[in-house]
Amino acid sequence: MLIGMKTVKITEKGQIALPKEMREKRGFEEGSKIVILTYDDRMEIRSMEKINEKMESAFATEKVLARDWNTEEEDNAWRNL
């Protein structure tokens, strides 16, 4: 759902300025970390905080996953599948 649209200019260095009202609406404050997702037909700017929440397992290392999943309880849960 589109909730806003603004035109911005790309500088010589490839920089853009996010309009104040959009930064405020999305909670982007100075120093906020963001992620730019690129698709074939568009780009999206998202809060790194939201990406971390949704993709936590994708960023987890094998060691972390093994610690959480290599348990007797997990083995029992998967034994009869």
Structure keywords:
5 helices; 2 strands; 12% strand; 81 residues; 41% helix; alpha+beta; elongated
Concise description?
This protein has five helices and two strands. The protein has helices spanning 20-26, 48-54, 56-59, 62-69, 72-78; strands spanning 34-38, 43-47.
Structure, described:
The structure is a single chain. By secondary structure, the protein is α+β, with helices and mostly antiparallel strands. The protein has one domain. It contains five helices and two strands, in the order αββαααα. Strand 1 and strand 2 (43-47) form a beta hairpin. The protein starts with 19 loop residues before the first helix and ends with a helix. The model has no long low-confidence stretch (mean pLDDT 83).
> What is the helix fraction of residues, given as a range?
40-55%
The geometry reads as elongated
Unreliable parts: none
Mean of the pLDDT scores? Answer: 83
Order of helices and strands: HEEHHHH
What's the number of domains? 1
Count every beta strand, where a strand is a DSSP E run of 2 or more residues.
Answer: 2
End-to-end C-alpha gap: 40 Å
Q: Find the structural class using helix and strand composition.
A: alpha+beta
Approximately how much beta-strand content do the residues carry? 5-15%
Number of helices: 5
- Tell me about the biggest sheet? 2 strands, antiparallel
Widest beta sheet: strand line-up? 1-2
